[in-house]
């Protein structure tokens, strides 16, 4: 007999309910269980069971039925569709019996992946370039979003970039690289820790952010043009004593630049990465203020 059951993508399924009968009660049975796409695992060791290989076991009926209750089906990673688990039973006289499970593996949304700027991948990396105070730079990388179960030309993706002490920009609205994306939000604030305004687009300790949305292929095309400029007069180096902000930025001493990137698909999947950024100081020219002096 064949049975049809279902499971979810990347979810292990127990194949309980397989029961063998043999009128030659003390006969030794050889049982092979295999899947077309995924894998089938037996609980091993198991009392009274002799293992031939990863898919084939031998035992008499009682022990075999007990072992069959612990068989698990593991779908192939990211596989969606119908798989078939085939069961073959052979007794010591060579008589054979076959059965199968048709398993419908249903899709689930896999979260997107995000390749950060160079050096920024992982829980917390360090951006490869040392930036310069008051200087706008192209973001080296580039930042790129991928979605293994999405279509880059169908469905929307959103990427949000945040900086504590600077501003991200992408080549302007109307520029050919960004013509097909929507700039959801652009904001810059003097306050380094503003109150959150949107759970999806905002994080505390984020002084500015840029969020763009569109087809995945168009979003990635626009991200190639990403630029960053530190806030006026800000400089700070990670891992070096002191440092911090100068001029009008309100956090001297302990301030450090941190970039955060979020990517979301249109089915609720989300991924984030963060990056430490070093910004080197430059010598600022002295300032002379002239006040009018009344003469006698």
Secondary structure layout:
Blueprint: E1 2-8, E2 13-14, E3 28-35, E4 39-41, E5 50-51, E6 56-60, H1 61-68, E7 72-74, E8 81-91, E9 96-106, E10 113-115, E11 124-126, E12 131-132, E13 137-138, E14 144-146, E15 156-163, E16 166-169, E17 182-188, E18 208-215, H2 216-223, E19 227-230, E20 257-265, E21 270-277, E22 279-280
Parallel strand pairs: 1-9, 11-21, 12-22
Antiparallel strand pairs: 2-7, 3-6, 3-8, 4-7, 5-6, 8-9, 10-14, 13-19, 15-18, 15-20, 16-19, 17-18, 20-21
Could you characterize what this model shows?
It is a single chain. The protein is mainly beta and 296 residues long. The protein is built from 2 helices and 22 strands. It has helices spanning 61-68, 216-223, and strands spanning 2-8, 13-14, 28-35, 39-41, 50-51, 56-60, 72-74, 81-91, 96-106, 113-115, 124-126, 131-132, 137-138, 144-146, 156-163, 166-169, 182-188, 208-215, 227-230, 257-265, 270-277, 279-280. The strands form 6 sheets. A 6-stranded mixed beta sheet has the order 1-9-8-3-6-5. A 6-stranded mixed beta sheet has the order 11-21-20-15-18-17. The protein is elongated, with a radius of gyration of 31 Å.
Strand order within the widest sheet? 1-9-8-3-6-5
Give the overall silhouette.
elongated
Proportion in helices: under 10%
Summarize the helix and strand pattern as letters: EEEEEEHEEEEEEEEEEEEHEEEE
Task: Count every beta strand, where a strand is a DSSP E run of 2 or more residues.
Answer: 22
Largest sheet: 6 strands, mixed
| SSE class | mainly beta
Cα-to-Cα separation, first versus last residue: 115 Å
| Share of residues in strands | 35-45%
């Amino acid at each position: 007999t064949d049975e049809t059951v279902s499971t979810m993508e990347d979810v292990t399924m127990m194949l309980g309910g397989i029961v063998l009968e043999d009128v030659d009660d003390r006969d030794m049975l050889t049982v092979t269980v295999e899947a077309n796409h995924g894998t089938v695992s037996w609980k091993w060791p198991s009392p009274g069971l002799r293992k031939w290989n990863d898919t084939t076991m031998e035992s008499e009926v009682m022990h075999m039925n007990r072992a069959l209750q612990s068989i698990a089906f593991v779908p192939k990673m990211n596989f969606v569709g119908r798989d078939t688990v085939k069961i073959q039973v052979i007794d010591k006289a060579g008589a054979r019996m076959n059965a199968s499970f048709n398993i419908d593996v249903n899709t689930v949304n896999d979260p997107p992946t995000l390749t950060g700027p160079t050096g920024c991948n992982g829980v917390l990396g360090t951006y490869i370039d040392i930036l310069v105070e008051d200087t706008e730079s192209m973001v080296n990388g580039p930042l790129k979003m991928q979605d293994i179960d999405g279509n880059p030309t169908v469905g929307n993706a959103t990427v949000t970039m945040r900086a504590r002490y600077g501003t991200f920009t992408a080549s302007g609205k109307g520029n050919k690289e960004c013509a097909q994306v929507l700039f959801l939000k652009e904001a810059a604030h003097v306050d380094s820790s503003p109150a959150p305004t949107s759970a999806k687009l905002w994080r505390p300790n984020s002084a500015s952010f840029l969020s763009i949305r569109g087809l995945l292929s168009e979003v990635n095309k626009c991200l190639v043009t990403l630029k960053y400029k530190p806030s006026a007069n800000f400089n700070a180096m990670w891992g070096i004593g002191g440092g911090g902000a100068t001029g009008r930025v309100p956090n001297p001493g302990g301030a450090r630049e941190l970039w955060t990137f979020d990517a979301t698909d249109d089915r609720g999947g989300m991924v984030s990465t963060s990056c430490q950024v070093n910004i080197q100081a430059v010598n600022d020219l002295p300032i002379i203020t002239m006040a009018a002096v009344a003469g006698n």
